[in-house]
Amino acid sequence: MRNSIHNSIFPFALLALLLTNAPEARSDGYAGYAGAFLRMGSGPVTMATGDAGVARCAGAEQASYNPAGLPYAPGNEVWIAWHNLSMDRTLGHFAALYQVPSVSFWGDPVKPIVLMPPKGQSSHPYAVYPNETRSRGVRSLRPEEYLPAIANAVLEAIENDTEVDRNTLLQLPGGPAEAGSLKPLLDETLLLAETAEYSTPEEIIDALRVLYQRTQKKPAALTITWDHAGTEDIQARDFDGIQTGTLGFYENRFSLAFGIKLHSTFSLGVSAGVLYALVPDLIEEGSSLTSTTFIADAGLQWRPLLEKEVPANLQTLTIGAAAYGLGGKNSWNTTGYWSEGTTKEDNYPDRYRIGFAYSPVASLSLYSDVETDLADLARYKGGLELSVMEIAGVSGGSSSSLGAMPKIMLRAGLDKTQPTFGLGLEFLLSGLGMTRLDYAYVMEDASPVATQVISWRFLLTR
């Protein structure tokens, strides 16, 4: 009976130890917090430069550092990475990036309107643009909601050979309203319809879409990611020291990241995901303990001197900031496993970064981050990358036969006090198009051996 109790209880004692000491490479300063696998770096491109990535544009792996950098990827891509870790730990990543072909924005004077309460002798609300009032309106309307009313009013004016003014009633969703600030748009649309001889509201609306929507080419990108970490073959023993089996612990994050360029110099990004943690066969085969929760990251990038005439190539300066692990936690419930079971939440630490990227010359890029928990932790990360456009021994006719010049990248950095090194090779692979192999060698505080990371990137478009 005593051994039976020990066999049932001890896995939970080991589980508590396991959750406290999950793979914690390069995560000093967050000891005791869950989610270490998300603090160990993602890809060798960034890890080789000291894990400084908040202001860079590394492609699909950028979703883990700052999703605001995703719109700057050179094309669609699929990316996989694997970490060679000590102490029976595994860590891998998968990401696929898709560039949104175009995003349209309404331009002046076609933009949202606010309907204000009637004034004077009128019994109808009137339309204004939000920047023209600080008062609270009756309701707001998007362009697609009021453009049909504009088109109908214009066709009616043409048919009746009448003028339009601010008091012209528009049959808007919810009832009629005076044109108000929409009068200039009505006049322009009337002239447009008279010149082109449009005969249906749909024709006028289509014409307005062409005139007042501006389309940016590939200003946004979506990325799906999967991060997986695990520790296995851990001996489970009872209180007498007798081995009762082995345990494992696995963590996953499945996320969708989106980044968009709101302006040529400014971009925003957000990542939302599901955390799934698993302790399989805890007491007996098939008795797994799981946790499913949510997590989010958010970031921005700013290029303050882009397209400006400044010395020292400062137009390449990028400033980035991001917040990580928002809402992240592992939530455990062991009441179904033993009589003294309980619930426990292991929170992920909120982390924040700010940093910059800068290329003083075309072939050299510098990166620097500072990561903090806004309490007592501040960690410096920084490094450099040197691009060599032509590889020795692969020149002349070889490059032209490949259709693209191979490129090698040399990287080095410092993650707090630990040196990092790496390299990358981009080339054209027959049948697969452009591809890139990257490698990083990262010294560790907690491990007797260094971490080695390799990734393979398939560039689907150029």
Q: Roughly what fraction of the amino acids lie in strands?
A: over 45%
Poorly predicted segments:
1-27, 391-403
- Total DSSP helices: 6
Give the count of structural domains: 2
Radius of gyration, in Å, reads: 29 Å
Profile the largest sheet.
Answer: 14 strands, antiparallel, barrel
CATH class category of the largest domain: Mainly Beta
Summarize the structure in words.
This protein has 462 residues and is of the alpha+beta class. The protein has six helices and 21 strands. The chain folds into two domains: 2-103 and 222-459, Beta Barrel (Porin); 105-214, no CATH class. The strands form four sheets. A 14-stranded antiparallel beta barrel has the order 1-2-8-9-10-11-12-15-16-17-18-19-20-21. It has a three-stranded antiparallel sheet with strand order 4-3-5. A hairpin with a 3-residue loop joins strand 19 (418-429) and strand 20. Helix 3 packs across helix 4 (183-196) and helix 3 packs across helix 5 (201-212). The longest helix is centred in the N-terminal third of the chain and has 19 residues, at 2-20. The radius of gyration is 29 Å and the shape is elongated. Mean pLDDT is 84; it is low at 1-27 and 391-403.
Give a concise summary:
The longest helix has 19 residues, at 2-20.
List the helices and strands and how they pair.
Blueprint: H1 2-20, H2 44-47, E1 77-84, E2 89-106, E3 113-116, E4 126-128, E5 139-141, H3 143-160, E6 169-172, E7 175-178, H4 183-196, H5 201-212, E8 213-237, E9 243-263, E10 266-279, E11 289-302, E12 318-326, E13 329-333, E14 343-347, E15 351-361, E16 364-372, E17 378-388, H6 397-402, E18 407-415, E19 418-429, E20 433-442, E21 451-459
Antiparallel strand pairs: 1-2, 1-21, 2-8, 3-4, 3-5, 6-7, 8-9, 9-10, 10-11, 11-12, 12-15, 13-14, 15-16, 16-17, 17-18, 18-19, 19-20, 20-21
Helix pairs in contact: 3-4, 3-5
